[in-house]
Write a structure and sequence with these properties.
Elements lengths: L8 H5 L4 H39 L6 H49 L3 H6 L2 H21 L1 H21 L1 H8 L2 H10 L1 H27 L1 H6 L3 H53 L5 H42 L18 E8 L9 E8 L4 E5 L6 H8 L7 E6 L2 E2 L5 H5 L2 E4 L10 H6 L7 H10 L3 H4 L19 H15 L3 E5 L7 H15 L3 E5 L11 E6 L2 E6 L1 H7 L2 H13 L4
Bound molecules: adenosine-5'-triphosphate (ATP).
Adenosine-5'-triphosphate (ATP) binds next to α13.
């Protein structure tokens, strides 16, 4: 969907795919054809009307010709039906297909963006982009743009035909059109600003709603129902006020333009009567013009009422374009085999917002292949951030993380991630079956392999209690699972993936002591012979690590084995002592 310099302007303006742009052109042609075909029955009606009028005024009517006109009318109706069917297929089918293609392309593009992008963007904003903005474009593609262009073409044809009959009356019919258009165009800047404010207010309101719904449990627990609903009420109030302002502005503008346009009827009657009384036009011509005026003003009025929406589309498509053109994560190198080599952090610095406070300030250490490195330190010292950088979810602001001497920044993100199994604190689950949620660890794994991994992670015990066992759907983000059950699913995924690098961030923090012992056993099997980075607050679980790195405020404070660090009597020894005192255990 990303545009190039050769992309036609309209395609770029509407953020269309190549196929969508071709479809839109075909839809416009089909719609124009329908509008022109619709003129045939109308022209025949005028001709029949003329013939009947001749009979009424005493002239000899040509009945044979009249029957011919009726027959042509019947054929015309069939042609109109066929054109309308083709028109429907082209416009609606094209719009719906393009909507689907755009959403899929954007979702796929989002998947390839660096994680830092999601740190700066709200989920509700992205949802609005993918659903609201694309839907608005769909409705304009299906029910506005083709009809608008077709109406302009057919109006121009009618204008030329009328000019051929009687140019002065034709001028009267259309003299008000430029003024009406001018009113709509003059108001567009004001309306565009209002539309933009309305979009911002909608985003703010949906962010407030999402916050409120996600936090409902805590709001109730803290008895904050009234207080927390205030910002949501304010955001919804702003949205309501802006919606009314937009409606009012559009309505006033369209009503004024339509009234000016309709004045053309009065002008046509006035000038027509003058011409008739002066003998410069006959009754038939005047009646024909009045008939036609009523026919052409309908589509023009609908164009005028649709124009404000069309003019507001530019803001929405600009957001779609910006999203589609967001640069994907850099690096394309193949990471095959690098997971089996040593992983080295070289003076890594990192801040989440790119230029704010540094979370890591020059971290350096090496993880040898097949060894366990434990990362410990006070809360907020940057342990999880290191794990995320090794997984390449983010890239260091400076310094480098190298596998086998190759900088991860130059590698294709997905290629590197094939080397890495992660079990993090926050487990993401999908609204799918237990089986498929575990199979995410390795797409294409057989049912037997999935079940073996699940059993090794001790998932069986809670899955057996579920109504449909392994086929039970987990609900949105695994809503029906406890924290410990979610972690066991995550461990099962990692076991199934069986990658050479394993990142464990508080992998057993939500488990009770009995389950923790069982899962530790599964984790030992997962980690055997792998390069492991383990983060755990309970220091006894990392005492056996080959190397322990102690982080403090984004810096490596100490490094060594458990015995060395205890002997050194530094931060690690102090943390161990505090835990011993609070938990009453000893090593
Ligand atoms: N997505 C984020 N955006 C901005 N800042 C973040 C983000 N994630 C973490 N931080 C900040 O980075 C710092 C380090 O966080 P990190 O999660 O790495 O610490 P940690 O040592 O793993 O903490 P804990 O032991 O409590 O899990 C913290 O000050 C935190 O507020």
């Amino acid at each position: 969907m990303a545009a190039t310099s050769k992309t036609p302007r309209i395609q770029r303006a509407l953020a269309l795919t190549d196929e969508g742009y071709r479809g839109l052109r075909r839809a416009i042609a089909a719609c124009t054809l329908t509008n022109l075909a619709l003129m045939v029955p109308f022209a025949l009606t005028v001709m029949v009307f003329g013939a009947v009028l001749m009979r009424l005024t005493g002239d000899e009517a040509d009945w044979g010709g009249l029957w011919g006109l009726f027959a042509a009318g019947a054929v015309g109706l069939v042609v109109v039906f066929l054109c309308a069917r083709n028109d429907y297929r082209r416009t609606y089918v094209t719009a719906y297909r393009e909507t689907e293609a755009t959403r899929m392309a954007l979702a796929e593009h989002l998947r390839r963006l660096p994680m830092s992008f999601f740190n700066q963007r709200d989920l509700s904003e992205l949802t609005e982009n993918l659903m609201g903005d694309v839907s608005s474009r769909e409705s304009l593609m299906s029910s506005t743009i083709p009809q608008l262009v077709a109406s302009c073409v057919s109006t121009a044809v009618v204008c030329a035909m009328l000019g051929f009959f009687e140019w002065r009356l034709a001028l009267c019919v259309f003299v008000t059109l430029p003024v009406a258009l001018g009113i709509v165009l003059a108001a567009r800047q004001h309306e565009r600003r209002l539309f933009e404010r309305q979009t911002k207010a909608r985003l703010a309101a949906s962010a407030q709603l999402m916050d409120y719904i996600e936090g409902i449990r805590d709001i109730r627990a803290c008895r904050q129902v009234g207080a927390r609903s205030k910002p949501m009420r304010a955001a919804l109030g702003t949205l309501r006020d802006l919606a009314m302002k937009v409606e009012l502005a559009v309505d006033v503008c369209v009503s004024a333009a339509t009234t000016v346009l309709q004045a053309g009827v009065g002008i046509t009657v006035f000038v027509g009567t003058m011409l008739l009384s002066g003998g410069e036009a006959d009754v038939l011509t005047l009646l024909m013009f009045l008939l036609i005026v009523s026919r052409v003003y309908g589509p023009i009025t609908s164009i005028l009422s649709q124009l404000p929406n069309l003019l507001s589309l530019s803001g929405r498509t600009a957001r779609l374009r910006a999203l589609a053109e967001e640069p994907v994560a850099a690096g394309s190198g193949d990471a095959a085999g690098l997971g089996e080599r040593s992983i080295e952090l070289r003076d890594v610095r990192f801040s989440y917002d790119g230029n704010g406070d540094e979370v890591l300030c020059g971290v350096s250490f090496t993880m040898e292949p097949g060894t366990v490195t434990a990362l410990v330190g006070p809360s907020g010292s940057g342990k999880s951030t290191v794990a995320k950088l090794v997984a390449r979810f983010f890239s260091p602001s400076s310094g480098a993380i190298c596998a086998g001497g190759v900088d991860l920044a130059g590698l294709d993100e997905e290629s590197w991630l094939r080397n890495v199994s992660v079990v993090f604190q926050d487990v993401t689950l999908f609204d799918d079956t237990v089986m498929e949620n575990i199979r995410m660890g390795r797409a294409g794994a057989s049912d037997e392999e999935v079940l073996a991994a699940a059993r090794a992670a001790h998932c069986e015990e809670f899955v057996d209690r579920m109504p449909e066992g392994w086929g039970t759907r987990l609900g949105e983000n695994g809503a029906r699972l406890s924290g410990g059950e979610r972690q066991r699913i995550s461990i099962a995924r990692a076991l199934l993936k069986d990658a050479p690098v394993v990142l464990l961030d508080e992998a057993t923090s939500s488990l009770d002591p009995e389950n923790e012992t069982l899962v530790q056993d599964a984790l030992s099997r997962l980690c055997a012979g792998k390069t492991v980075l383990v983060i755990a607050h309970r220091l006894r679980t990392v005492a056996g690590a080959d190397s322990i790195v102690v982080l403090d405020r984004g810096r490596v404070a100490e490094r060594g084995t458990h015995a060395e660090l205890m002997a050194a009597g530094g931060l690690y020894a102090r943390l161990v002592r505090i835990q011993q005192q609070s938990l009453g255990w000893s090593l």
